[in-house]
Amino acid sequence: MANAVSAPSRNLFANWRQNIIYIGFVVIFLIFAVTLSDKGFLNPNNLLNIVRQTAMIAVMAIAMTFVLSAGEIDLSVGAVAGLTTVTVAMAIAVAGPIGGVAAGIATGLAVGMFNGWLTTRIGIPSFLTTLAMMGIAKGVAMWISDTAAVPILSPGYSWLFGGGSMGPIPVLLVWIAVLGGLGHIVLRRSGFGRRVLATGGGETAARYSGIDTANIKMKVLVLSSCAAALAGMLYAGRLQSGRFQLGEGDELSVIAAAVLGGTSLFGGKGTVIGTIVGAMMIGLINNGLILFGLEFSQQLIARGGIIIIAVALSQKR
Question: What is the per-residue pLDDT across 170-211, written as a single tens digit (0 to 9) for each?
């Protein structure tokens, strides 16, 4: 009888750990809703601002889920986003919105293919490759912009890439929903997603089963850089300018969002839906701490502590 009772209890406990990100999101939201009700936390504009401020992190984190699931990492996403804001703004000034979009896509493809080539063909670990690319991308952005902001004078581009809304729904929320749904289907329902998870779960076994693991890693690194470039295009559209500082430090939030959502740093496990919730949870925490009136240093401490607790609770023992 004891065993019959304990088995369901263990399963329930395991499911509780697996779903800690969703439970934590609801708990934190309720705490902020009660304690910050007089400061406008539940105001629709404030809630939509959380989405707007978190959208770029969510877009990059969706792709980071694939990278981590394949057993790799990309530390250059924040710098690539910043570089893209500059290339897009400069291209729009010369060739209009279409030229700006083309420049953004080209930036993501070029960086991703270079990262992938160094990692899969030369054999440099992705940690070092993308760490170096972080500095290169930021340096190039500073160089070509002369460290000055480059304005974007294109209402159509700004509306589509972050600055507009469809009634009460921000365009940025539409981007998250579309990319999140697509990413979830690809990772869970497609052959490519299964090969990504197999590569991260055991590269040697994956190779013996006929999977071209080098090709998979190349593709996920290109995907990550393209997502970072898209995030840069969204930054540029929302703020109507290109600045090398945009995206600075985002790589930490992106990785944290993926890990909070249940993606393993060691590969073989990932969930796009969890990643999006993880990104929104980080945005929720940031917004709530600001409304509490904490100083920036205190916000960093509180945010780090909450993330550590959430990740620790989600780990299996």
Answer: 999 999 999 999 999 999 999 999 999 999 999 999 999 999
**Residue 200 to residues 181, 189, 203, 206: CA-CA distances in angstroms?**
22, 17, 6, 9
Q: Are 82 and 243 in contact, with CB atoms under 8 Å apart?
A: yes
**Residue in this structure with the two tokens 């953004």, named with its chain if needed:** 104
pTM summary value: 0.90
Structural domains of the chain in order of their starting residue, each with its CATH number: 20-314 (1.10.3470)
CA dist 235 and 250 (Å) reads 12
Residue type, 161: F
Q: Classify residue 39 by its DSSP letter.
A: G
Going by the DSSP 8-state scheme, the letter that residue 120 receives in this structure is I
The tens digit of pLDDT for each residue in 285-302 reads: 889 888 888 887 877 787
Q: DSSP characters for 155-208? A: HHHHIIIII-EETTEEHHHHHHHHHHHHHHHHHHHSHHHHHHHHHHH-HHHHHH
